[in-house]
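Box 3.1. Reading complex inputs
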Amino acid sequence: MSSTPLLQVDAIDASIGVINILHGVSLSVSSGELVTVIGANGAGKTTLLRVISNLLKPSVGLVQFDGAPTTAVEAHRLARRGLIHVPQGRQIVPTLSVLDNLIIGAERSEIVDSETLVENLEREYSRFPVLRERKDLAAGSLSGGEQQMLAVSRALMMRPKLLMLDEPSLGLAPQIVKTILNALRQLADEGLAVLLVEQVAMAALSVADNAHVLRNGEIALSGTASELRRDKALVESYLG
Amino acid sequence: MKRYVYILMAIAIGVFPLVVENTFYIYLAQTVAFTSIAVIGLNILLGLSGQMSLGQAGFYAVGAYASAILATNYGWPLYAAIPFALIVSGIAGTLVGLVALRTRGLYLAMATLAFGFIVEILSQRWVDLTGGTMGLMGVPTLDFGNFRMGPIYFFWVAGFTWLFVQIGSDYVFSSRWGRSLLAIKDSESFAQTVGLNVPIWRTGVFVLSAVLTGLAGTFFAHQNGFISSDAFSIQLSIALLVAVVIGGLGRSYGPVLGTLILLAIDEGTASLHDVSLMIYGGILLFVLLGFPEGAIGLVRKLMPSILSRALMAVPSSPAAAPLEEVFSQNRRRESVGLSIEAISKSYSGILAAQNVNLSVAPGTIHALIGPNGAGKSTVINVIAGLYGADSGRIRLGETYLTKLPAHKRARLGLARTFQNLQLIGSLPVLDNVLLGMERNVPRAGGFWRWLVDTNHERIARGQAMSILQFLGIEELAGHYPADLSYGHRKLVELARAVAQQPKVMLLDEPVAGINTHEVKEIGEAILKLRELGITVLLVEHNMDFVMRISDHITVLDYGLVIADGDPAEVRANPKVIEAYLGVEEETT
Amino acid sequence: MLDTYLQILVSGLAMGAIYTLTAKGLFIAHLATHKLNFGQGDFLMVGAFLSMSLIIAGIPVLLAALLVLIALGLLGWGLERLVIRPLDRFGISGGSTYSWILTTAGVALILQNIAELVWGKSSHYSPPLFSEGRDNVIEIAGINMFVEEILVIGFAAVVVAFFYYMLFRTRWGRAVYTVAFNPEAAMLLGINVRRTVVLVFVLASLLAGISGILVGPLITIHPHIGLMFTIKALAVAAIGGFSNPLGILIGGVLFGVAEAFSNYYDSAFGDLYPLIFVLVFLVFRPSGLFSEAQADVR
């Protein structure tokens, strides 16, 4: 693990139009670490990820990825550098096949020769075997859980250094959520930096190393995941 | 004020041909007058209702041929032929309007383009009827039998007709008609929720524009005594669009200004006839890419502000009417409850709401909460009538709403606000509130009152002001939505919903994305609504807010009702905690 | 009698192939950007004239075609860059949402005028591409067929197949579908959205150019034939709901054949019937015959 974090977010403010969404949010993620940002709807979690991947410019503050500020780098170039953002709602391309969806990820990273491609595909098929069975089907015909697995696998085909996921549990049954979160834990153990944004706090905390609670655009609580799970303030921050 | 402007214009029209003796200028003025009528029709269609038409030449041709053929081949007098031609244009407008109803944007542009093309081909090839490219000869001219004075008479008729149409257009632009059309242009679902019957409005505006364009066509037919199919090509449709765009799309005086400019360019470049198409195309690109507001926009910018204020005087902050007057209806009525009985709704295989039962007691504030994707928005939209339910019933008081379209539900007293705000950006705050009142403003006498009174909507404006005051935002009346904070916009939307004098209000995330202070303001406003006897059903994520103001809370998860009770009960309910935070389980 | 029908069928197929190619250009642009070129037919006209002049000047057909395609590619690039993308800065509220319809139509007018100035307003006959004379006839199964028509059909089939290959089997095609689905999600996948969109308009123009080269020897060309092709290609694309490439293929072929037969039975107004039919059909199936269920709500 390197001494400087892979992702460093420093005191950012962000707004959409006239609406201020984030105030003074700071956090960092290092390689091999799984950090989760939890919070109720409308707390600003999605906006935070959008700022990090430079879909939205912060009004104040700095985001650094791999030692360089992100603000001057177009979103698609950040993705090619290994900052991978899996947006909310999975965003797999429904009209393309599962295999095509996986290939989209690969062909923008440096995976050029077909041998490496096959290798990477095999790795993802063994991670989520159901994808192998469905590889020729239109991605839109998959169930929600399978689509989420596809979204994670597609992201991994892009050779991420940092993987950010926006509410992967949305609309999924608890068992599937567990499968996906366990996969994320394993990835972090293998050395990937993971930033997981979740509404379902307990599940996220059960796999994370460190956690931040976002509330009305500000970080209300921070700590290790195990501390936060026992903190009574957590329930309050959700239900008022 | 505007009365005198119109009288001045009338005098100018009367005097012009007597002063200007050059018949060529009179001829040009005739053409400006009647072409402006067609452009006004297009301006209302495209600028106000947002419907693209690339086939206006079709209506122009229909009007011209109907009138010319009846007068020439069948000897009808012009006073009979012209009105009949307008009816024929109206029928053509209805047919195209029906296509327009079912299509939007690109499809509409394509359909109107094809319509214009078909009419052009028919006029070229149906030689027995139209004379084709050789044309119809000996079409009676509109000269009242006086050859020498004919052009002057023609100008007077065309000029005064234009003036009438212009006054009508001004009325549309500065009254509830224009507001309603803008609402439909911005968002049809929003227009429904303020009680507008969208299909009728959309078809109606097509018919109106067809009749106006047909009217211009009849003038054209009786101007020279000769028409041929060459006049009705796609170039004419484009020319009308060019005129409306240079003038200033969606401005009442854009058409006449645009027509003047276009004809001036045409005449000024008559020697450059070979490049006339290039000039048209160039103007389109130049204006749309450089000055999308058109000439009117430029004039506004250049005009000294005192003059513009005098000319475009809109009373922005009228005196507020007494609140009792505004809410007299509500006060007299008992509060009404809302019940949702076993509603289910699924889309593309996902059950968004399963057998949801919800009973909102009269005069209470009821919150519907749940994690992301729980189905709250679905329930709200099913109640408002934007989505149909797969099964189940909705009852407002004693009336079942299940089968009614959204605009009828709105008229029965169901108002709503939207999660993503639906305010009309081109209208000031007060006018946005007036949109909510459209159903309650008496229609009769609207036009005459408008003509003689600078403030023809005094009563309605007073009431709207009073609603703004009630919500504590009266100082915003004259501002445009874009200049307001998000919280203030939410309050304006609330004011618009209040203006509908609803029995039940549906609030979709009334405090999402606003600061703590504004949350408090909106909370107070909602409590005031309850005092007025309005029943409130709200969807919201801000729990502090929900717990503080609600009388009763229903919790949804995965489309199912998982809890129902007062705030304290719901907060303590383990199922609710689980739905929001997930199950506490040991890591493996 | 059967001979005549077969000949009409072949003519219809040839024109249908042209409509299909032109409509594919509209489809691809609309798929990726929800915008398209209302001067698509005028781009075709430019392609037809350019190829006519180059071939008459003695340049070999293949080289001429290449030059035409380079010119059309540049036109498509300029169109996107200069009159479509700049409109984005006004946002949705500024001007009209459909300003692109008028700006692309404006470009069409300018092209018509240039064509008038260069080639005059009268009709021209383009030399044949594949044979010595325009009326070159080949006997197939005892029936005389025009060589040009047969080869146009064959060539168009090759282009359509290539188009399908591009769309469904290449990195670029996948990018187009991803951008079509959600431009922002495409960015997050490392796709250069702006470049993809430019390429889409270039391809759309190339398809118009190919159509122009092919159609030249089949009809008489003049500076104002573009509008008719725009309208018919739009109608064909609408049959496929602007979203279904197969629907557009079937729609284009059916449209061409229907037109050929209705022209045979009513030489005065025959070409209008298929168009009117499509308009009426749109009232009942506004999202097209073969479109996917998802209707564009706006």
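In summary: Chain B has 26 helices and ten strands.
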